[in-house]
Design the sequence.
């Protein structure tokens, strides 16, 4: 049983006038069959770029991709445009943060799903309609028959997101890429969608890559979590393990920045000083070194290598063992 | 910290909101001048007080009316009925004309980019309001630079820049500086940190706390992020479909929520523990449209505790001695007995 | 609170001019930098500058008297010694007439647009900011004028006012006012809705102050760019009016009028007869390219 997605030392660079933006700098990640991996990071961490690279969504002219990228055993980087078109929708599907941008406003959602089905499978219109209906039932849209004839703007936010999930699942993909699908939703709707994704994943055996900046959402759906910073995965591991025993300084601060939990009223939040680095001007050593309170001189000049601390838990930090000694109860604030 | 502008003393609420109503009529089908059939009842009878020196958090989902309420409080939109009383004086009256009220109440918006004029430098944007109220340009610029320094942006580096040259967090600091330029007493923060990265959000929250202490400010903090609201607020107000459903101290509302909607909202927060995940969504469906709210109690269509009376009678808002107020028939003397008491007082874990 | 007041009240501070910190490049400087890198727009700009330069200095640099007729040298072809561009039907040197004619043609192209820009922007910005019923009243009135095709409207107005340059300018201005007013209203309404205008309202500024400080700077740019695209239309309309005898009167040289009088010469000296039209064409295209370049330079979100 091979892994569904394999990223090996993936590098993605964008050409901008007068500079080169290094968005992804050596990402190693595998997603097994039926596994849910969450990519966590802030803006500029490279998580969305990584996701879109899996389907090679970026413009070919201004992007350079290097490294290994395999989906379902096939080399995506070597694919022709036709092979890519077959891959998208059939093997890999994607859902986005804002359904209004992903759904065509001049067609009903039913029409869009039917079109997608008929493009990948040879079925009659009636059969496609039946499949669309059952998809709507699967994503738990109430009154599905009526909703198939609705236009995107006629639906509420949560309903649109469900419709987008239905569209993504219409061609029975094996992999679902989710780019911040719940960020724009209200709390009560967000939890519904997260549970829906979890149930669908179990039922259909999907592999999911879930990009988010919300650690709570990741905890609800992910088997494994990978934390990204400046285009690299600086820590990844099983969800429970990573959240209770974070080892990288960035992960530690990220979890402490959350203002709930042990924070006392009137106390100030612990913050990371400084700002994320300029992706067109990355330092030679660890990109987090200038903001890291555990950094030593070596950190700014030497790139840290991936170190496996326990099965599946990989950290990229030169001082990971020393930090564990300084700060053994790092996760207490959770 | 005594403020020379304080009229009513510490016991008097800084702002009293009384029976605020704002409906947006929907154009009916037909002639342009025909009377509208229905309206979006964005704010439908809202009452609350903001006490001096507190941070009052406001939570609620899409369609609850919190943003419209904020804009009415700022008088950017005029209410259909209801009044605002600022430190004992009615806003818009002779004792407190609108212009004077504006000097004392300011707002920070959610979208940090669109809140700043893209053609003006940062310092000009901040200095604008003081010059409008008569401060000579030189002093206004000096004040603007002072404020920039206060919010953590070095004037030498930032004063001459344009908004597009700043990051989201930096722009939001500028917006805060701009709001403080008139030396207000009340600052309304409408999802002011929602669009920021978590680490930047933490920095800005700390800044807001520092400024509040330094300048003796009162905050109205609107947000959909319950964690942030819990952290920063002294009291919390929960809105649903244009009405206030619960008010109380931060601890009261988060630890012992009374209203079923508040409970559902709190239960919707994702669990941070992958080994103990949420198994069931506390509320089904989407937040409803404020165009035709359900009769009786507006929440009864989605409420786990609803009884027949809930669809017939709208609850009245009432507070207990500890200041914890709720609008729910389960807590009204004559209807309380109709509801089973079994799990009603289990606190949110 | 008290700290801020102390700062404002200290006499020393109020007497000292705060040091000027380095200002970043403003919006227009950025636009200029971008448009300079656009080869098409720069070519157009050079062409226009040359044409305008020639027109301005025409009386001093033209090779011959543009009004000197001669029955012997009628309709000479291009390249005739002494008449590089040939002669027209009355024997006048074409090059000199084209150079001098450029004055009127360019003047009649630019002036109506300039006046319409001022008047139309005023109307549109006022309607856009006022909103509501006032907006509707003003804009629907403007729409009445807008509904007429420009050529027809220009001819009708000119015909009603009578021939002559001033009347032609007036009618062209009136033709362009609705178009500019519509753009102005649309852009102003958008800006009116933005958060920074709300913030300015929230600070207690009067509508006039807000328009001056916040709205103008953000709307005049797009309106101006749209207006420049109207210059070529104006030139062609003016030429058309002269062609019909409603604008410039002979013997004044003007490209449109020259096209008219050289009409019959198409069969004998086609190249000479086409020259005024070619100049109208080149000028129009150059204005359009410059306007396009300006628009793309302004489109970048900065």
Sequence:
């Amino acid at each position: 049983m091979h892994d569904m997605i394999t990223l090996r030392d993936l590098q993605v660079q964008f050409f901008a006038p007068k500079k080169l933006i290094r968005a992804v700098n050596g990402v190693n990640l595998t997603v097994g069959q039926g596994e849910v991996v969450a990519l966590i990071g802030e803006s500029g961490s490279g998580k969305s770029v990584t996701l879109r690279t899996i389907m090679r969504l970026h413009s070919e002219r201004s992007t350079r991709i290097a490294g290994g990228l395999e989906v379902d055993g096939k080399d995506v980087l070597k694919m022709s445009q036709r092979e890519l078109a077959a891959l998208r929708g059939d093997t890999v599907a994607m859902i986005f943060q804002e359904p209004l941008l992903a759904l065509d406003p001049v067609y009903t959602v039913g029409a869009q799903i039917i079109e997608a089905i008929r493009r990948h499978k040879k079925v009659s219109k009636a059969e496609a309609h039946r499949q669309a209906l059952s998809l709507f039932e699967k994503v738990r849209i109430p009154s599905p028959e009526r909703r198939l004839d609705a236009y995107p703007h006629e639906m509420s936010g949560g309903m649109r997101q469900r419709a987008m999930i239905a569209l993504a699942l219409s061609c029975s993909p094996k992999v679902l890429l989710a780019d911040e699908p719940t960020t724009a939703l209200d709390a009560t709707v967000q939890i519904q969608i997260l549970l829906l994704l979890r149930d669908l994943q179990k039922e259909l055996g999907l592999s999911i890559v879930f990009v988010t900046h919300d650690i709570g959402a990741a905890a609800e759906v992910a088997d494994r979590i990978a934390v990204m910073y400046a285009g690299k995965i600086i820590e990844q591991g099983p969800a429970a393990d990573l959240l209770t025993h974070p080892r990288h300084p960035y992960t530690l601060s990220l979890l402490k920045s959350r203002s709930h939990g042990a924070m006392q009223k009137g106390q100030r939040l612990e913050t990371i000083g400084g700002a994320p680095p300029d992706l067109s001007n990355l330092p030679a050593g660890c990109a987090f070194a200038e903001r890291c309170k555990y950094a030593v001189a070596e950190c700014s000049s030497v790139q840290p290598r991936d170190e496996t601390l326990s099965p599946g838990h990989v950290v990229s930090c030169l001082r990971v063992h020393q930090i564990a000694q300084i700060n053994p109860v790092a996760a207490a604030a959770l | 910290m005594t403020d020379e502008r304080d009229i009513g003393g510490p016991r008097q609420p800084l702002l009293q909101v009384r029976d605020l109503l704002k409906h947006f009529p929907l154009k009916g089908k037909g002639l342009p001048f025909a009377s509208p059939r229905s309206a979006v009842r964005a704010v439908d009878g809202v009452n609350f007080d903001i006490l001096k020196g507190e941070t009052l958090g406001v939570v609620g989902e899409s369609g609850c009316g919190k943003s419209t309420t904020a804009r009415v409080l700022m008088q950017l939109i005029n209410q259909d009925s209801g009044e605002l009383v600022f430190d004992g004086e009615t806003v818009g009256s002779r004792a407190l004309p609108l212009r004077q009220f504006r000097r004392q109440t300011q707002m920070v918006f959610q979208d940090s980019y669109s809140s700043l004029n893209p053609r003006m430098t940062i310092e000009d944007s901040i200095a604008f309001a003081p010059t409008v109220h008569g401060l000579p340009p030189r002093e206004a610029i000096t004040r603007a630079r002072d404020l920039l320094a206060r919010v953590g942006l070095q004037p030498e580096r930032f004063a001459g820049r344009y908004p597009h040259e700043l990051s989201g967090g930096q722009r939001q600091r500028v917006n805060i500086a701009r709001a403080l330029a008139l030396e207000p007493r009340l600052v309304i923060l409408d999802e002011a940190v929602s669009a920021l990265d978590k680490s930047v959000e933490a920095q800005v929250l700390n800044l807001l706390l520092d400024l509040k202490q330094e300048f003796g400010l009162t905050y109205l903090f609107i947000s959909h992020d319950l964690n942030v609201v819990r952290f920063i607020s002294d009291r919390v107000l929960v809105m649903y479909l244009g009405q206030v459903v619960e008010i109380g101290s931060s601890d009261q509302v988060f630890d012992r929520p009374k209203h079923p909607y508040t409970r559902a909202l709190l239960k919707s927060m994702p669990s941070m523990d992958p080994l103990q995940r949420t198994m069931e969504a506390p509320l089904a469906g989407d937040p409803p449209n404020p165009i035709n709210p359900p009769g009786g109690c507006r929440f009864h269509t989605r409420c786990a505790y609803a009884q027949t009376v809930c669809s017939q009678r709208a609850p009245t808002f009432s507070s207990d001695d500890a200041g914890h107020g709720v609008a729910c028939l389960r807590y009204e003397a004559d209807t309380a007995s109709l509801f089973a008491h079994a799990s009603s007082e289990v606190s949110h874990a | 609170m008290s700290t801020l007041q102390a700062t404002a009240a200290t006499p020393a501070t109020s007497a000292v001019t705060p040091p000027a910190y380095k200002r970043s490049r403003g919006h227009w400087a950025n636009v200029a930098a971008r448009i300079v890198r656009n080869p098409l727009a720069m070519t157009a700009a050079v062409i226009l500058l040359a044409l305008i330069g020639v027109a301005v200095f025409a009386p001093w640099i033209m090779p011959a008297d543009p009004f000197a007729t001669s029955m012997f040298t009628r309709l000479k072809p291009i390249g005739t010694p002494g008449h590089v561009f040939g002669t027209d039907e009355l024997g006048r040197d074409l090059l000199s007439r084209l150079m001098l004619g450029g004055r009127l043609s360019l003047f009649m192209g630019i002036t109506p647009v300039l006046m319409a820009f001022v008047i139309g922007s005023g109307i549109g910005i006022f309607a856009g900011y006022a909103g509501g019923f006032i907006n509707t009243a003003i804009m629907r009135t403007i729409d009445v004028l807008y509904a007429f095709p420009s050529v027809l409207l220009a001819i009708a107005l000119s015909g009603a006012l009578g021939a002559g340059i001033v009347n032609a300018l007036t009618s062209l201005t009136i033709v362009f006012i609705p178009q500019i007013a519509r753009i102005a209203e649309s852009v102003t309404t958008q800006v009116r809705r933005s958060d920074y205008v709300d913030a300015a309202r929230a600070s207690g500024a009067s509508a006039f102050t807000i328009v001056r400080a916040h709205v103008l700077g953000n709307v005049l740019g797009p309106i101006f760019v749209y207006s420049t695209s109207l210059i070529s239309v104006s030139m062609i309309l003016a030429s058309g009016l002269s062609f019909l005898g409603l604008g410039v009167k002979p013997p004044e040289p003007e490209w449109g009028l020259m096209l008219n009088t050289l009409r019959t010469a198409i069969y004998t000296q086609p190249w000479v007869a086409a020259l005024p039209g070619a100049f109208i064409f080149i000028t129009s295209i150059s204005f359009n390219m410059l306007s396009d370049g300006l628009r793309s330079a302004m489109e970048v979100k900065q």
